[in-house]
């Protein structure tokens, strides 16, 4: 499932060779780690030898510092094989001394290496731990013995107090040992919050002793859909849950690593796991099944039923007994309110509360607000705080609640202006379930989207439009990993690394200090650490990247080829296999004819994986084009000109190359500039019916000499599918040679999806990326 594994191994071996230490030279640490510390002051001379037998001293009677010393010893032995000796003694010359010196930022640290030895001073025990992580990452993972630490003073402190990673364990279940491994990955990257998504439509994962059916029934689904809601199922029962003792074990494991475990029970939507166990908590049905597909179910909790409040409070009471986290996540996202509109119990509750629709909020939105405020009141009474997704703003936010803003930054901005604490986690920067490469065919299946490391690195969680006072309410940021298409821990690691490395620089570093080129230069060292620790990670940063840009003025395609670490790129344009003897890319190439581009990077004589693309130049390429009807707002991108820019989209419709029409036909008029003979029309259409994206049902071509009077020259129709399909389809229509200046091409959309589809009767999307006339 992983990306060109045969090629990646020699590629990475080449990268490691860049850091080889040689048989004679002494290995040397490098403090230019990720995240990059605020201050690295290197002495002109002097080194401390980190070797077997060096002591790690820590204050006697401080168990947290003892843990820190043991972690340091464990990390060093694991990475370079050197055995250090933790001892409860006073600071000593020639030792690594752990110390505490309080300051305002309790997670700050300083690591000083000089003639006395190594001193790791933290503002708290947590600060010492982060100093240890810095020192750990400074060690060359290729070393197999003692390492020299250059004399230096290295200081750092995190920018944000909340630094998180979320893992969804509902759609797929991960064993306790992997959860611990995931927490170790978080610790390596300086995270301090593990957001644990424990319940959803596809399974309930937290043991509630008061409600045993939640795990006996709600944790199990009969089978699971294959792919993107294809309608095909694996026929295999699936389940799993965490006992309360296992959860306490995870909490303790994380606490030793200064990571808070924040549990989430998603409500009042995403609750089919609970409804399958206790159907009386729903609005209309007497039976529910744990969901076997992905998406958002319209079956939600009945918020007008007093038993629902009693149930949720019972769940939360046991949850807070297990999890000491000050903040408890109650979800609140994606809750369809259709059932509430026709539920007598919910409507009676709305009447009892005196809820009336306003310009801003419907009655049902206010019902959700009522429910969420009840949950916050309960948590506050038990000494806890509440956080929810940004939908909890709808209907009015609970008085003391915090917000996780996922649908962009807007929810966070609104909450900050209302003086509520905010954690930013927008899809556009922080959804690690998105593809991290355009090359989908060589990637494990993902939910969609496109989020490369470079995009994660650009993230600024503090919007400029907030006032300085309002900005103080942005407490931090986190990335989310939803696991509909991520069945095991191996793939979890692949999806989060190295994107978590890019995120942690945002979480730790001041915005003005961040530099992507610097980050890329430092990442191979972290890759070496990943490899030594046995982590599975994505290596796209080492791949060749190609950028094709349409240049209508010069009527050509412009090609750029590069790697993040600026290695030489060798290429061919005729489809032949590139080698180290192929031309080296030097400057922008202007392509004016059909080309088959293939390119590789060369590192120490080792070829990287290949980047390839085809360029097709037609008579209509780069010609002006206009649309009769606009695309859907979310899928307009660069507008009509994309239809003749000679750039072909990939198989992900949300990456910006495809124009998306919802219910409206794509009617494009192309101005050829002068009378031009044409006898064929081709149109590229993306099809992904599980995402409501259907093929065209019609292709029609008309011609005109003046752009006003039109004559049909060809037309064909296409049948609706009888089942789900995913493909890129090229429709071709031949017709008698026609000479005209203007050609109008119509691609018909499906106005009502067929009966096999969940959205039957509703209009489908049509995605088009190129129309070619020849």
Structure characterization notes:
The chain is an alpha/beta fold and 774 residues long. It is built from 18 helices and 34 strands. Strands 1, 2, 3, 4, 5, 6, 7 and 8 form an eight-stranded mixed sheet that branches. The chain has an eight-stranded parallel beta barrel with strand order 9-10-15-16-17-18-19-20, surrounded by six helices. Strands 28, 29, 30, 31, 32, 33 and 34 form a seven-stranded antiparallel sheet that branches. The radius of gyration is 29 Å and the shape is globular. The relative contact order is 0.09.
Keyphrases for this structure?
774 residues, eight-stranded mixed beta sheet
For the report, how would you describe the main beta sheet?
8 strands, mixed
How many β-strand runs? Answer: 34
Helix amount:
10-25%
Kindly report the average pLDDT value.
93
Summing up helix and strand content along with how strands pair, one would put the structural category as alpha/beta
């Amino acid at each position: 499932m992983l990306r060109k594994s045969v090629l990646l191994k020699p590629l990475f071996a080449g990268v490691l060779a860049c850091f080889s230490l040689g048989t004679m030279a002494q290995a040397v640490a490098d403090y230019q780690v990720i995240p990059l510390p605020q201050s690295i002051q290197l002495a002109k001379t002097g080194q401390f030898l980190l070797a077997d037998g060096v002591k790690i001293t820590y204050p006697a009677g401080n168990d947290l510092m003892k843990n820190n010393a043991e972690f340091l010893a464990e990390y060093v032995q694991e990475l370079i094989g050197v055995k250090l000796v933790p001892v409860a003694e006073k600071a000593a010359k020639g030792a690594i001394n752990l110390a505490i010196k309080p300051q305002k930022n309790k997670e700050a640290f300083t690591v000083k290496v000089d003639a006395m030895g190594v001193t790791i001073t933290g503002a708290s025990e947590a600060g010492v731990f982060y100093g240890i992580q810095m020192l750990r990452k400074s060690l060359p993972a290729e070393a197999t013995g003692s390492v020299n630490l250059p004399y230096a003073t290295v200081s750092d402190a995190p920018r944000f107090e909340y630094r998180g990673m979320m893992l969804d364990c509902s759609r797929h279940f991960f064993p306790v040992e992997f959860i611990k491994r995931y927490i170790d990955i978080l610790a390596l990257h300086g995270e301090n919050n593990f957001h644990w998504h424990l319940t959803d439509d596809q399974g309930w994962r937290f043991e509630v002793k008061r409600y045993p059916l939640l795990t006996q029934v709600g944790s199990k689904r009969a089978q699971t859909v294959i792919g993107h809601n294809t309608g095909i199922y694996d026929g295999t029962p699936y389940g799993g849950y965490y006992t309360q003792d296992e959860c306490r074990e995870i909490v303790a494991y994380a606490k030793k690593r200064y990571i808070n475990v924040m549990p989430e029970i998603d409500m009042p939507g995403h609750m089919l796991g609970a409804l399958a166990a206790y159907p009386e908590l729903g609005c209309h049905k007497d039976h529910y099944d744990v969901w076997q597909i992905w998406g958002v179910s319209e079956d939600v909790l009945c918020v007008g039923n007093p038993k629902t409040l009693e149930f949720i409070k019972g769940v939360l009471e046991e949850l807070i007994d297990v999890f000491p986290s000050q903040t408890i996540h109650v979800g609140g996202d994606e809750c369809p309110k259709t059932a509430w509109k026709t539920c007598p119990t919910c409507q009676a509750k709305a009447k009892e509360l005196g809820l009336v629709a306003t310009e801003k909020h419907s009655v049902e939105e206010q019902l959700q607000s009522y429910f969420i405020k009840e949950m916050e009141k309960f948590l506050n009474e038990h000494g806890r705080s509440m956080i929810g997704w940004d939908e909890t703003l709808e209907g009015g936010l609970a008085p003391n609640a915090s917000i996780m803003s996922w649908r962009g930054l807007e929810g966070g901005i609104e909450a900050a202006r209302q003086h509520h604490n905010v954690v930013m986690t927008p899809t556009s920067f922080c959804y690690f379930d998105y593809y991290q490469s355009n090359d989908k065919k060589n990637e494990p299946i993902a939910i969609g989207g496109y989020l490369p490391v470079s995009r994660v690195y650009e993230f600024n969680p503090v919007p400029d439009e907030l006032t300085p006072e309002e900005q103080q309410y942005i407490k931090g940021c986190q990335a989310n990993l939803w696991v509909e298409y991520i069945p095991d821990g191996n793939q979890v690691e692949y999806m989060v690394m190295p994107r978590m490395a890019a995120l942690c620089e945002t979480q730790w570093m001041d915005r003005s200090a961040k530099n992507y080129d610097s980050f890329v230069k430092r990442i191979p060292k972290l890759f070496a650490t990943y490899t030594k620790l046995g982590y599975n990670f994505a290596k796209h940063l080492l791949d060749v990247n190609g950028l094709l840009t349409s240049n209508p003025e010069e009527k050509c395609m412009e090609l750029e080829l590069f790697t993040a670490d600026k290695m030489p790129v060798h290429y061919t344009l005729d489809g032949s296999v590139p080698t180290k003897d192929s031309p080296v890319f030097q400057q922008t190439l202007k392509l004016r004819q059909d080309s088959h581009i293939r390119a590789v990077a060369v590192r120490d004589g080792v070829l990287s994986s290949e980047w390839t693309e085809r360029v097709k130049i037609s008579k209509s390429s780069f010609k002006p084009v206009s649309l009769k009807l606009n695309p859907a707002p979310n899928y307009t991108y660069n507008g009509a000109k994309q239809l003749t820019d000679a750039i072909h989209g990939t198989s992900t419709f949300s990456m910006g190359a495809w124009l998306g029409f919802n219910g409206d036909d794509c009617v494009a008029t192309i101005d050829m500039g002068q009378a031009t003979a044409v006898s064929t029309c081709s149109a590229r259409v993306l099809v992904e019916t599980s995402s409501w994206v259907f093929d065209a049902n019609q292709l029609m071509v008309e011609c005109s000499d003046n752009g006003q009077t039109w004559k049909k020259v060809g037309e064909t129709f296409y049948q609706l599918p009888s089942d789900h399909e995913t493909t890129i389809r090229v429709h071709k229509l031949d017709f008698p040679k026609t000479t005209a200046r203007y050609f109008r091409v119509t691609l018909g959309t499906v106005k009502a999806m067929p009966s096999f589809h969940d959205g039957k009767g509703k209009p489908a999307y049509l995605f088009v990326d190129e129309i070619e006339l020849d």
